[in-house]
UniProtKB/TrEMBL annotation:
Name of the protein this chain belongs to: HAT C-terminal dimerisation domain-containing protein
Source domain of life: Eukaryota
Location in the cell: Nucleus
Keywords linked to the UniProt accession: Metal-binding, Nucleus, Zinc, Zinc-finger
Entry GO terms, CC: nucleus
Domain HAT C-terminal dimerisation: 217-282
Record flagged with keyword Transferase: no
GO molecular function, one term: protein dimerization activity
InterPro entries (UniProt xref): HATC_C_dom (IPR008906), RNaseH-like_sf (IPR012337), ZnF_BED_domain_contain (IPR052035)
Length: 308
């Protein structure tokens, strides 16, 4: 898995967004002394209610249809494995700051916590827009594009990087077409206009390598933003014919995972199925794999279907 990432994107380390967000929350709570004592009291209350069935029943009756548990929304958004998550990191951080910064709080504890959270977010995620892979994924997501960038230099750098990738793709295509043309055509006789034809061909290659880049990128960036509940890969599938160069780059960067949670879940699930106590497990007992199929294939090519 590490080798595949190195081949596709180079030796670049992208930190797990879920773990980084968890560090922001933990360190923020650790720095607030009053909050730590409050959390201790809340834990004691929760322990007491768990130990008493009568008290827990009374609590359910008192809070029925009046309260709702707050889920870890940001972590849930980027920890899935059935939709794009890499392009959501920068927009989620931006939206998180837009929610926290404008809060007008009166309690000293709340103000202290707000200040500490903003410092932790800036410390750990302040330069997230300069992570090239995440910036490109955000720009090439039709739902976000350049809307959530706070740093214009980081945004322009990501756009310039996309242009470089597109130019490299076009140059490779031109080189391939040139090699095929030279292999097919026989050697011509001497011509005084031979150098002229070379200059025309060179200018044609330059125009071909520049115009499609600006055209495709400008068409994409000026188009309407997609709806948040749409799948960006399906949107790009519809744009494949109109924007073929951008389509290839978008598929490469949008399929990155923002967190290590999906792979951790997969390995944990696999360890529960084939563990040390079940090391003689036959193929018929592994979900989705007949015994003959498992025995006839090499281990590297076996794909286990693990139900969620």
């Amino acid at each position: 898995m590490v080798k595949a990432i190195d081949l596709a994107f180079g030796k670049k380390h992208i930190p797990c967004f879920a773990h980084t967000l968890n560090l922001v929350a933990q360190n923020s709570m650790q720095q607030c002394t009053e909050l730590r004592s409050l959390i201790t009291k809340v834990k004691d209350i929760v322990t007491w209610f768990k130990q008493s069935n009568i008290a827990s029943n009374e609590l359910r009756k008192a809070t029925q249809k009046k309260t709702k548990l707050i889920q870890e929304f940001a972590t849930k958004e980027v920890s899935a494995d059935k939709y794009c998550t890499s392009s959501k990191v920068i927009p989620l951080i931006h939206c998180l700051l837009l929610k926290i910064k404008p809060l007008k709080l009166e309690e000293s504890l709340a103000k202290e916590l707000q200040s500490v959270i903003l410092k932790e977010v800036d410390k750990r995620m302040g330069v997230i827009e300069r992570v090239t892979s995440l910036a490109i994924a955000t720009i090439l997501d039709p739902r976000f594009k350049k809307m959530h960038f706070r740093d214009p230099i980081a945004c322009s750098s990501a756009v310039a990087k996309v242009k470089e990738f597109m130019k490299a793709t076009i140059q490779n295509e031109v080189v391939e077409s040139d090699s095929s043309d030279h292999s097919d055509k026989p050697e011509d006789n001497f011509s005084l206009w031979e150098d002229h034809h070379k200059l025309v061909h060179k200018s044609w290659k330059t125009a071909k390598s520049d115009d499609p880049i600006s055209d495709e990128l400008s068409i994409y960036l000026r188009s309407l933003v997609g709806r948040l509940n749409e799948n960006p890969l399906e949107i790009w599938n519809d744009l494949k014919i109109q924007l073929p160069k951008l389509h290839t780059i978008a598929y490469k960067y949008l399929t990155m995972m923002a967190t290590s949670a999906p792979s951790e879940r997969l390995f944990s699930k696999a360890a529960q199925i084939v563990n040390q106590q079940r090391n003689r497990l036959k193929g018929t007992a592994i979900p989705g794999q007949p015994a003959t199929e498992v025995e006839s294939k090499p281990l590297a090519s076996i794909k286990f279907q693990i139900s969620a």
